[in-house]
Specification:
Largest sheet: none
Structural class: mainly alpha
Radius of gyration: 12 Å
Shape: globular
Distance between the termini: 36 Å
Length: 96
């Protein structure tokens, strides 16, 4: 089964991590070191590797995530709702 990949710059990498996971891990790294939702997926170590090599896209991705459909963002396994992910992305944009 083919996966649906984000069609913007760096979309393949963001798809690999997951938009919600990316925001959750970015939140952990930049806002709250006690936040651990990103650890709820067993593949988080590989996702961290992608995260570390894609820093040039972070602000751009946060803008893109802010424009995403909340229902689509609800599909992740990290325990955050789409509206929470979008709010976190907006706050991260303000501090990065």
């Amino acid at each position: 089964m083919a996966r649906n990949t984000f069609t913007f710059d760096g979309g393949e990498e963001l798809t690999t991590m997951g938009a919600g996971w990316f925001v959750s891990y970015c939140w952990y790294k930049n806002v709250d070191s006690m936040h651990s939702n990103w650890k709820r997926v067993s593949t988080y170590k590989g996702r961290i590797s992608v995260f570390n090599r894609t820093r040039k896209y972070f602000k751009y991705w946060l803008v893109q995530i802010g424009n995403m459909n909340e229902k689509n963002l609800n599909k992740g396994a990290i325990g955050l709702r789409g509206n929470e992910i979008k709010l976190m992305a907006k706050k991260l944009l303000d501090i990065l």
